[in-house]
Description:
globular; alpha+beta; 5 strands
Amino acid sequence: MIALDTHTKVYLARGATDMRCQIDGLAARVADVLQADPLSSHLFVFCNRGRDKLKILVWYRNGFWLWYRRLEKQRFWWPGGDEQQALELSVRELQWLLDGLDPTQIKGHRRALFSEI
């Protein structure tokens, strides 16, 4: 099992990705378009135009993992904008995304400062 820790970063490839791409095609997109290292052990997340399919690419020890998720009736929240720039999320925010939430709209408790207590 892959262990994701607080140092693991998650990068969402903005815009739509052709879901016919497999490991080599997605790794090439990570390197060429996102200007990132596909062997970095970070998670790279891709979504199709219909926003009902996701692929997650991650390097683990000596090879790639490719996870695929397809929704039957609903859609994922997905960022638009410049496809050359990835959106960075935490592992926790990725879980929210997979659960159907918009990670940019989730608000936690305000951080308390000792001087305010």
